[in-house]
Specification:
Blueprint (H helix, E strand, L loop, with lengths): L1 E3 L33 H11 L2 H4 E3 L10 H11 L6 H6 L4 E3 L3 E8 L4 E3 L6 H10 L5 E9 L6 H11 L3 H9 L7 H6 L2 E9 L9 E12 L6 E7 L4 E2 L27 E2 H9 L4 H6 L1 H30 L10 H13 L11 H64 L4 H4 L5 H30 L6 H8 L8 H12 L1
Length: 493
Amino acid sequence: MVSPDDDSEPPSPQLPQHTATDRSSADTPRAGQPEPKGRKASSRNKRQGTHKSALQWTTGWETKGRAPYHDYIHKLVEAGWDNLKDVDEHMNQNSEDKDLVVSIVDILDTMEMKRRVDLRDVPALDHFLANESREGVKVRLYMAEQRGKLSSAVMESLGVNLRLDPRFFQWNIMGSKNLMSPADRHRAPFTSIGFTVLDPSTAKVTDTFFFRTTIYVQPDEVGDGWTGIILFNSHLKTDIFINAVVTPPPFNPLASVPPPVERRPHTFRELYLSGISFLKPEEMVKSPFYTIHMLFRLSRRCWSDVITAIREQDSRINGISEASVNHVEDIRRTFDIVKRGGSLGWIKSSTHEMLEVGEKLEEDFTHLLKQADFLWDSREKRAQVARRKAEARWNALTNAFTFVFVPITVISGIYGMNVYEINGSTPDIWQFFVATAIMDTIIVLALAFANFAHITTRQKRRPGVKEVFSFAVGRSVSIPLPNLCLRVVLTRS
């Protein structure tokens, strides 16, 4: 179990509850764009929730020049590391999150987990990083939770004190696109897990919300310990309980039953903190991947909920619901991280516990991929059925008009002929039917000859009379498209 730090100051008051309305600054209109009005504006305000009160720009940020870590990144950009431009520009201003939470958990040399008091502002984080010793601590985990992109002040504090690779922050705020080559990305000391969860703030049951969790593992310079930094880019709360992704204790009439859980939404940082209490400290010390594997379990559970919601909504409307695009690639990307054990550059462990965790996760994500493939295959089949039904309705409508207008066309054509039986002029009407029969015979013979020539030249055999004439009367198609088009043209002429 995680024990609290009794020597520290008492924790701050409980944070106010937030829902999936937490969004990044992408919802804010760009400079030069008009403010949205009407329904669009009200929808945006509903999604933003408490953004204006929780996110505030810091006016005194870097008034005396760039901070040390920001200056280091800026000089790297000037030296040619253009893949760090975004984080350099991001750190030119600071967006302070009043709901910032940094949880810290230590694994001591005695294999006991000890949770520190949560830090709720940057000065407290600076003070802890500068003054807290790692003596007697094997592993230290920092779990920072902030709405949207990480603030520049938090980046500066973590970067200076822990000497982190700036590409870690670039990945956190912009993703890994064009940041590193695949080989470097697979071996970097950091990685990222994308979470796609159902968004309860919208009316559509299949709408989803995405946020990124970035993990950095830094081995200690002396000893076999390590430091972990986990950045949660959202205060999103969910009704999922961590107990749902772990094995329950076996029945024992003499053992005490686990106490009831508090029935309230939890952030993913809170869920992860609850999850590590189920882990073995001695295994956590040996393997960073074992330490964070609860995040992969949560990610798989969220994906499963999304797939189930889409499938149920499709069945409810007996069609295709308005869901987001295919998620298979996103799941496959997370699965690749699982197969690598997080990062190829992390400390590896081959204990029975670690191997079992890896096997279970691979099996879970394999099943999840099958579920996703089956879902999108079924949606494609539903789309095909819908298209066939639409075509059938259109054909029925066309046939209905045909039944009405064809008799009129035939009768008007007959009464418009200049024949003896209609207006007393020549020729007789029987000559028309004879000419029609002759033309039909010529067309049938031409099509039959074309089919005979095609079979003898392409298939190197002599077809029978029935096979030759069956195409001419429209019972089979055995010649290529150009001859088929010729047949249509001749028939219409």
